Amino acid sequence: MSVQAWTFLFVGxxxxxxxxxxxxxxxxxxxxxxxxxxxIPAIANGMATAADWMSAASFISMAGLxxxxxxxxxxxxxxxxxxxxxxxxxxxxxxxxxxxxxxPDFIGDRYRSNAVRIVAVICAIFVSFTYVAGQMRGxxxxxxxxxEVDVNVGVYVGVAIVFVYATLGGMKGITWTQVAQYWxxxxxxxxPAIAISLDLTGSAIPQIGLGSDLIGEGTPLLxxxxxxxxxxxxxxxxxxxxxxxxxLNVFCVxxxxxxxxxxxxxxxxxxxxxxxxxxxxxxxxxxLLFIAMLYLTAPAIGAFARYTxxxxxxxxxxxxxxEWFNSWEQxxxxxxxxxxxxxxxxxxGDRADENELFRSGNLGAVRIGEIRQNHARWLAGExxxxxxxxxxxxxxxxxxxxxxxxxxxxxxAGLANWIIALVAAGGLAAALSTASxxxxxxxxxxxxxxxxxxxxxxxxxxxxxxxxxTVIGFAVVIAGILGIYPPGFVSQVVAFAFGxxxxxxxxxxxxxxxxxxxxxxxxxxxxxxxxGFTATYILGSVYGGWSSWAFGIGPQGxxxxxxxxxxxxxxxxxxxxxxxxxxxxELILSIREPEGAPPALDIELGPEAE
Length: 610
Fold this sequence. Notes:
Blueprint: H1 3-24, H2 30-35, H3 42-53, H4 56-69, H5 74-98, H6 103-110, H7 114-146, H8 151-201, H9 206-210, H10 221-231, H11 247-261, H12 265-268, H13 277-295, H14 298-313, H15 323-329, E1 335-336, E2 357-358, H16 365-379, H17 388-394, H18 405-412, H19 417-455, H20 461-484, H21 490-514, H22 520-543, H23 559-573, H24 582-591
Antiparallel strand pairs: 1-2
Helix pairs in contact: 1-8, 1-19, 3-8, 3-13, 3-19, 4-14, 4-19, 4-21, 5-11, 5-13, 6-7, 6-21, 7-8, 7-19, 7-20, 7-21, 7-22, 8-19, 8-20, 10-14, 11-21, 11-23, 14-18, 18-19, 19-20, 21-22, 21-23, 22-23
């Protein structure tokens, strides 16, 4: 069967499975909708957490970044993995013992203020929408290539699927759906990795293949990759701290990803879905084991993709280009503008007299068509034509879109059509699993933390469920719009979300658990200062053309500075404001008690709370 036929088969079967699970898991109360009735077994919750965690950024974009950046790309792997360990050890057990539904719920009750709760709700929504933009972008990319539809159409389909199973089953439906999605995505990621490793090095273990000799050459894969990179004008694949990715930026991005992980609402809520604190700890163990299966394989996939792409494209004429290039060129995520010699030169330079590969999906089909027509006139020497390659360079577009690397790797390596289609299904599973969790965070932030806890504390179960499902409807539309007009490639957008979470939630949660002295107003002003600075810097860098004026730190790592500002403002203001009252201090002590101690207090705030 063709790739498209296999893709329709895999996507149809997996999507049907997701919808059946959502129908069987539908709920009729808020506890089931927000925390799955707190009855999910630890190992199942570990799988769901892993699927929620391994988003489109992990599946589609992380190996692409490692492939493009080489050594520096490892900062994403270290940051996301280390951050999960930080979350599991430092925060999750305490938050689970606290026993509420959401992060804004913890912050509102710990700092005993609905004003702080509202700030936390706004931060949660802002972070979640930034994150979900990357997931919808990933969905659109997968559909645009493998189902041969426009990127925007792919986003619409993904939005519809997420809406159905998120509104039907809430957290319960999402959790069991994510268990299925985990096995789809991990199978789809490991299968081509093993096949390519066998083909290139003879080893069935990709991690061993990464350090092995190439079959028939006797040269280590990484040494050969460094040699090819040098010949083409690229920096060494394994050399650290090159260009903009100096030590400071690598450190800041890694730390921002770690702290952002520990402050991400859609991951933290996972630890509320199990029965007790012990189950929360075991969930963290299982999730880390399941996550490691993908994360430890990503460097190998990145290197395999880089080697295969450079070997397969450089110096080829148009007639010699592989089929995968022609297929992906239709998406606009990789283009070739011939500068007149008829050969494609994949170069690390930025010279207008050499051919290059370009990513240009964000220009839109109409604009790409205009560039192609003008370029054809330029080649023919007709008046009014212009060099399309130069036009794309001026737009800052050079090299294949990083988000296609993993998806295109099986085609680059000439693997079977069913493997290519399986990777597409895995990419969709990764994007949709995280998108659903993020949409539920947005829903719970508005319906539970804002509507029920502040606006209408007397709301019935049915009213709260209706508001929650309505909010998901609005949120999924906004998520679709952000997927059509993303502020960057998938991992870049997700890194922005992590930076925002690090700057807003991480300091306040840590201080809320481990300090009895920090009160309401220092926490509120700290959150506002942290996320305000970070959001302004990111928006100014992406849309305003700002230089990296804060110590040379780029927008992906600026969350570290925002986090430091949050800590500084909160701790600096603490001596000037009163400490929390006795009941809050007892609450803090209770959530730090070992297992078997009396349960945490459950403080309910009414509309009269300040």
